[in-house]
């Protein structure tokens, strides 16, 4: 695989600066092909939403019926959607509000302060405005901030924003809570696959998992019908736990060949299956294409927390899920190898993980 010892292939332009310039048209580099643009047909699915699951009862061992109901709901969501929202997840509402507001305030800081955190393809960590290093790529209408949370040796508070003043402490507390939630969710998925409850977590590395945060900022767009905030893709990691902007819809999930606009429940966390869980489950659970639309009236901020396998553990289908009728669909690959494969190409729908299937 090609390494990333290079800079971004073209000069970086901050999408926020384009938005705030007042220009009535977007640069051609952000205009998607007609087949990839948002369509009016997505509005026809407004009555549909991804499943919303109250997971409070999963920890109440005395209520087996409630626990079984939650297991069934999560299983159905993983098999039929790849996405679901969870409520009563144990993370306090004030923390969710505060960290979302803190990141909103960061993106309103003067550009010279944010530029002090500018990233590059070698680390990807920091303030950015593009994915992938393909020269001449069509870009997305978004800026972002990416940081590492686990393993501990990659966590560097000095690379986290120092302003607003409380943000580093909020990130630390939020990360701790979301990592615990990710571990609980892996138990649910393991049980639903007929595995020991610790199987997926152990496959991820046990206590030695990876975790990182990508905060997405989607500025107002003068021509939202021509572009996307984030192109169609499936997430390369294990599980994604998303704190959405619950005031402005934008996430769309592909289901039954239609794009469904997700309507976030108040203080819910949106969970989606990543490519690594698809591999481990031998495609019983499947990562699902999703994208983000933008609008001309409102900006959006969302926090995507990625709960991932340890980077150097080979990931392959669980042997308990391999049968003569359903052999292993994937050869072993470490998450580091897969992540580099993804980063070189940028968002590519489901083609990334599908291209890894073992030849038959």
UniProtKB/TrEMBL annotation:
GO molecular function term, any single one: metal ion binding
Coiled-coil intervals, chain numbering: none
Reactions the enzyme catalyzes: jasmonate + 2-oxoglutarate + O2 = (1R,2R)-12-hydroxyjasmonate + succinate + CO2
Listed cofactors: Fe(2+); L-ascorbate
Domain of life: Eukaryota
Classification via Gene3D superfamilies: B-lactam Antibiotic, Isopenicillin N Synthase, Chain
Keyword line: Dioxygenase, Iron, Jasmonic acid signaling pathway, Metal-binding, Oxidoreductase, Plant defense, Vitamin C
InterPro entries cross-referenced by the UniProt entry: DIOX_N (IPR026992), IPNS-like_FE2OG_OXY (IPR044861), IPNS-like_sf (IPR027443), Oxoglu/Fe-dep_dioxygenase_dom (IPR005123), Plant_2OG-oxidoreductases (IPR050295)
Residue stretches making up the Fe2OG dioxygenase domain: 208-309
Any one biological process term the GO annotation gives: regulation of jasmonic acid mediated signaling pathway
Family as reported in the entry's similarity comment: Belongs to the iron/ascorbate-dependent oxidoreductase family.
Official protein name in the record: Probable 2-oxoglutarate-dependent dioxygenase At5g05600
Organism: Cucurbita maxima (Pumpkin)
Gene name of the encoded protein: LOC111484828
